[in-house]
Amino acid sequence: MSHLKKTLLLAACLYTGVASFASNLSSTVLNVRDFGALGDGVHDDAAAFNQALFELKKVEGPKTLLVPGGSYLLDPLPGTPANGGHLNVLSEKDLTIRGEAGTLLLFGSAYHNGIVVNGGENVTLESIAVDYKPLPFTQGLIESVDTQKRQIVFKLDAGYPRVSEPHMSGKSTKNIAYIFRPKTALKMPEFYDQYVETVEELEGDRVRLTTRNPVEAAFVGNKIAMVARRKADAIVFSSSRNCFATKLTVHSSPALAYGIRNCGLVTLDGCKIIQPEGSNRLMTSNADGIHVKWGDQGPIIQNCWLQGMGDDSVNIGGTYERIVDKPDARTLIIAVHGSFRAHNDIQIVWAKNGEMESLVECTKVGFATIDGKRYMKLSFVEDLPESIQTVKAVGMKDADLIINMDQVPVNPVIRNNFFGRHRMRGILMRSPGAIIEGNRFEDLRGEGIRLGHHFGGRVEGPNGAHAIIRDNTFVNIRASNIVLADGGPTQKTESHARSIKNVVIANNRFSLYGQKIGYDPSGMAGNVLSVSTCDGVLIEDNVIDFPHPDAVKNTLVKINHASNVTIHDLIVEGELAPPSEWLELGDDVDADTIQVDQSRF
Question: Considering only 97-106, 117-126, 421-430, which range has the smallest mean pLDDT?
Fold first, then answer.
């Protein structure tokens, strides 16, 4: 049995086994109302929640905090740090926090996380909706623009934050504005996102924005939302294992809806990111819907509905660090980062081409101070390659990078979800071994799925090798529907490493693709499949239906910097059309290893 199959089988056993084990044992149940919580949306119930959790911490074995229907306002307790939450679940085991119909937690500070589960094992959050009060964004109707000065004037919708409120601006806040259709509340990707430079409050509930992006006269009459994005997430799982989020709903967040960091096997089942029913809100979370970083096991994300986010639906991967210095043959200096540990699989990423290579064993992780700044010092058992380029020697952009592959959330499973009606991609996968199946991607400005690492400015990785993408539906995706590509400083790249290996793209369906994108330097509008920096890709039994009536003309399937790509029976607009009508072979392609077979039907 392959390593991937073993891991998936283990994940399935853990999910069913742990859940059934906990449910079969008698559980101590405490009701938060018995500790003074009112649930009226007015009084601060944080003390009651914390007292209930304090009592449950004394209980051995399964335990449940019951949160009856109601709106519970929670403010951070005095002394809560910036990375803390309104509700902190610390070092708990076998704990369930369960809501009922109508259970809503209202977070009173846009500067703090919502619920934080840190150091947990078998912790379940179930049947709870969460929201921020005040909202971390505002919105209104665009009344006028000045295209020369790049200014937009809009009138605030009733009940939304004024831009003069402290949480709507500040040094740690990123203000970005998006244009929406007033009738459908869908974002308009044909226009540039507006990165705000100045904000002025005018008379009559009006706001004037000055942005650094092109402003068009066609903005007038459309809706606009301006987010106040900062580092505060609605739901956080940190350094936890075998945890569950079941039927959770996130209505808003200053940044991520769900942040999962340094974890092993967190399962999200039946969760939602969605505006409140009956609301006219344009946004949900200001950043990604589900963002997974580090850890040793990817999440299971299933039966979820994600919409309205300010960035990707799902983003999974690890982090590269530039090599700052190499003071001797067996030592590397890097920026301080918690994902690096001794005796782990530390790999180098060559900046010249993005290729990855395992280094010799790291025996010690320590610290060093250079010019008054603290760095991480990695010591290795043998000499390192002489060709390593450092920031000290060649500068930041050309320096090589390293990553700890034992701190990458591998083998994630993403199935039977809806991803759509938001700003960017459906799935950004920078982790190997993913299974992506049975999902629906709809109304996206960015790619439906993107696999690959980025060793340029974003330094995110590793990539999506060994992925299986099957039985998914893509509707009205403006950029390339599926992209396999590593990203880096191509103008300085000597050769393109083909590091994305052994990917299967099978039985997917694509329709209404190809509308115009406001900013499209890579020419992705109108393209359905883009395969690059790959070795070993099987594309079979996929169906490309008709494009959007306003689609940009483009080649449907593009292959660049790749080898060993096989395409079986691609149906295009109802026919098994010849490759000359839909396939383009670009630069650095091993043409002899590209096989197209349209004869099986």
Answer: 421-430
Cβ contacts of 510 within 8 Å, gap of 6 or more: 474, 477, 481, 528, 542, 543, 544, 545
**Hunting for tokens 């630069």 — which residue is that?**
587
The DSSP code for 46 is H
Beta bridge partners, 365, equal 378
Across the strands, what pairs with 290?
Answer: 258, 314
The whole-angstrom separation of Cα 346 and Cα 362 is 7
CA dihedral 580, 501, 408, 250 (to 10 degrees): 30
Domains along the sequence of the chain with CATH? 3-133+231-311 (2.160.20), 137-229 (2.40.10), 319-407 (2.40.10), 425-597 (2.160.20.10)
Neighbours of 577 (CB within 10 A): 16
Predicted TM-score of the model (pTM): 0.93
543-558 in b/e burial notation, b at 16+ Cβ within 10 A? bbbebbeebbebbbbb
User: Is 495 exposed, middle or buried, given 0-12, 13-18 or 19+ CB atoms closer than 10 A?
Assistant: exposed
Main-chain dihedrals φ then ψ at residue 15, nearest 5 degrees:
-65, -50
Greater confidence (545 vs 588) lies with 545
Query: pLDDT tens digit string along 96-117?
Result: 999 999 999 999 999 999 999 9
pLDDT in tens, 228-241: 999 999 999 999 99
